[in-house]
């Protein structure tokens, strides 16, 4: 395969990934006004340090909360609806709760699998990064074409 074909395929794949990320974000944004709160039981909710390098601290919260909607059981594995479970900086024990504790879970009544413990601000960051990578691959493909 020529470099042009490789760079073009990488660019096209990045565009598709970016569009999928935007679609997922749009679905979540549309679901927010419908979201309601129910009680869930913590099975595991703890924050672990993932890296500490040159003044940069990163951590991740492990979320396993069980809740029911209309008698059907669901699991919540998401801390922040848009940001997920990763943190930059030290959040300490802010999100640590003992097993068995009752917490509030936001969920979409149309699709309870769409749920989180915290509704945060929507972010476009991941999609923008993926589109920037697509642009870089497109430029590389253009130079390879010559």
Order of helices and strands: HEEEEEEH
* Rg over C-alpha atoms, rounded to the nearest angstrom: 20 Å
Number of helical segments? Answer: 2
Beginning-to-end CA distance, first to last residue = 16 Å
Multimerization status: single chain
Shape: globular
> What's the number of domains?
2
Which stretches are poorly predicted, pLDDT < 50 over at least 5 residues? none
Which structural category fits the helices and strands?
alpha+beta
Describe this structure in words.
- By secondary structure, this protein is of the alpha+beta class.
- Helix content is 34%, strand content 36%.
- The protein has helices at 3-31, 125-145; strands at residues 36-53, 56-69, 72-76, 86-88, 102-108, 111-116.
- Strands 1, 2, 3, 4, 5 and 6 form a six-stranded antiparallel beta sheet that branches.
- Strand 2 (56-69) and strand 3 form a beta hairpin.
- The mean pLDDT is 89.
Task: Jot down its keywords.
single chain; 2 domains; 2 helices; 34% helix; globular
Brief account:
The protein has 146 residues and is an alpha+beta fold.
Topology:
Layout: H1 3-31, E1 36-53, E2 56-69, E3 72-76, E4 86-88, E5 102-108, E6 111-116, H2 125-145
Antiparallel strand pairs: 1-2, 1-5, 2-3, 2-4, 5-6
Helix pairs in contact: 1-2
């Amino acid at each position: 395969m020529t470099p042009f074909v490789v760079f073009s395929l990488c660019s096209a794949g990045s565009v598709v990934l970016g569009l999928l990320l935007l679609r997922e974000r749009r679905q979540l944004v549309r679901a927010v006004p419908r979201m309601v709160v129910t009680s869930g039981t913590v099975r595991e909710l703890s924050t672990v340090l993932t890296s500490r390098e040159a003044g940069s601290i990163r951590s991740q919260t492990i979320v396993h909360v069980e809740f029911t909607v209309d008698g059907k059981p669901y699991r919540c594995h998401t801390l922040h609806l848009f940001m997920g479970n990763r943190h930059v900086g030290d959040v300490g024990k802010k999100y640590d709760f003992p097993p068995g504790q009752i917490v509030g879970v936001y969920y979409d009544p149309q699709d309870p699998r769409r749920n989180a413990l915290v509704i945060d601000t929507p972010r476009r960051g991941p999609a923008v990064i993926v589109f920037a990578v697509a642009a870089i691959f497109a430029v590389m493909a253009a130079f390879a074409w010559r």
